Inverse folding.
């Protein structure tokens, strides 16, 4: 199937023909750990890369290859590697390209375990990590040098919804032969395709919207064939061993089939929830790219197809009252992770971003009062009603009427 077909069609059909597989609509799941050869010569040739036979599941499997082809098509990337987790994707990719003495420049706001990997994995190995506010493209221009191997950012960032201009950053990176690596977990390729904007590598936690049902942990790295081969045969094979299981490949193929439909509804619900929060007298700030008062809305319109399903907000309240608000919710679940059918809420300073110290949270623009909401697929009236009753429970009144 060519890339002329629409996203939704490729998410369902790319790289698999039922009629060439005994009519099976759902592709078979390969769980074999090893693959047999006709003889030693054929096995030897496979190890030399002289034929395309599968060898051992740490290097890939037929069902993994199908998933990778489908995902590469959705991200408009030349190649893709599926991994056992988002952190498996991030660590396998970064370890493949940095060595002691190199510099990695990262945006100020990062998912907690990515930050922890930079602090406790890369820095002790002699890799310099510099954090900059990459929303201000000028800062990259001022700090990048020939020692910079990688520039790394999420957009929107977890948890505070800041954006970076992918195209502008890529142009600067390429003047210095540095690679731009974007974590596209929040958007998925349905809403944003960093490679088409000049990024060299894209990583995902597929645990989130791509799987979509909270029943798997997985990741992806995407980029040019040469880079992905290097990550597969070095970063993953020899360093992290973060191999995806055949069962998770199957669940992910299923998740991808409905990605566009689910994400459309996540965005529709999140827009209404963000508007509701933004008009509440109990909410100090609502960070959502779909709000007219969102500072980076022009950039959101330029590089994102819709505003996404994630919202961050701060209450006009103490940290204790913010926790009380989360605890007062009845249908909405207090849980980390995101992109599931269930609406999930959490307090980053206590949970996902507890890898940052109090000082680091402030330095990295993550307010200790911030609440993160992953808007799910329940009926919008029920989501708003639950938020409303939590406002009443903490503040004595909701401050407004619900209008979905
Ligand atoms: C979370 N995030 O709740 P896995 N990149 C981004 C992410 O949000 C995540 C990863 C990578 C959350 C997980 S916190 C204990 C739970 C932007 C994960 C890592 O290895 O698949 O979890 O992805 O924000």
């Amino acid at each position: 199937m060519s890339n002329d077909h629409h996203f939704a069609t490729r998410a369902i059909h790319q790289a698999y023909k039922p009629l060439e597989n005994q009519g099976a609509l759902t592709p078979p799941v390969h769980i074999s750990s090893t693959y047999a050869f006709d003889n030693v010569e054929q096995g030897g040739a496979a190890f030399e890369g002289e034929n395309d036979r599968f060898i051992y599941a740490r290097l890939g499997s037929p069902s993994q290859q199908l998933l990778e082809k489908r995902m590469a098509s959705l991200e408009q990337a030349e190649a893709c590697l599926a991994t056992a987790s988002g952190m498996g994707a991030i660590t396998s990719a970064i370890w493949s390209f940095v060595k002691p003495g190199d510099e990695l420049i990262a945006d100020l706001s990062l998912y907690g375990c990515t930050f922890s990997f930079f602090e406790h994995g890369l820095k002790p190995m002699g890799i310099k990590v510099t954090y900059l506010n990459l929303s201000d493209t000028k800062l990259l221009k001022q700090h990048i040098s020939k020692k910079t191997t990688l520039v790394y950012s999420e957009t929107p960032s977890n948890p505070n919804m800041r954006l970076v201009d992918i195209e502008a950053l890529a142009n600067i990176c390429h003047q210095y032969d540095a690679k731009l690596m974007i974590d596209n977990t929040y958007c998925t390729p349905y809403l944003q395709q960093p490679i088409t904007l000049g990024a060299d590598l894209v990583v995902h936690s597929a645990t989130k919207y791509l799987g979509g049902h909270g029943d798997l942990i997985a990741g992806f790295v995407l980029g040019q064939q040469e880079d992905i081969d290097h990550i597969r045969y070095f970063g993953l094979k020899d360093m992290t061993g973060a191999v995806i299981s055949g069962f998770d490949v199957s669940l992910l193929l299923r998740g991808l089939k409905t990605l566009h439909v689910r994400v459309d509804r996540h965005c529709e619900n999140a827009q209404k929830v963000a508007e509701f929060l933004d008009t509440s007298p109990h909410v100090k700030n609502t960070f959502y790219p779909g709000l007219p008062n969102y500072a980076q809305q022009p950039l959101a319109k330029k590089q994102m197809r819709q505003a996404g399903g994630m919202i961050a907000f701060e209450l006009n309240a103490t940290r204790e009252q913010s926790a009380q608000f989360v605890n007062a919710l009845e249908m909405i679940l207090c849980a980390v992770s995101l992109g599931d059918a269930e609406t999930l809420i959490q307090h980053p300073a206590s949970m996902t971003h507890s890898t940052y110290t109090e000082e680091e949270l402030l330095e990295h623009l993550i307010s200790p009062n911030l609440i993160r909401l992953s808007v799910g697929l329940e009926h919008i009236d029920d989501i708003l009603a639950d938020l409303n009753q939590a406002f009443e429970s903490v503040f004595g009144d909701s401050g407004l009427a619900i209008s979905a």
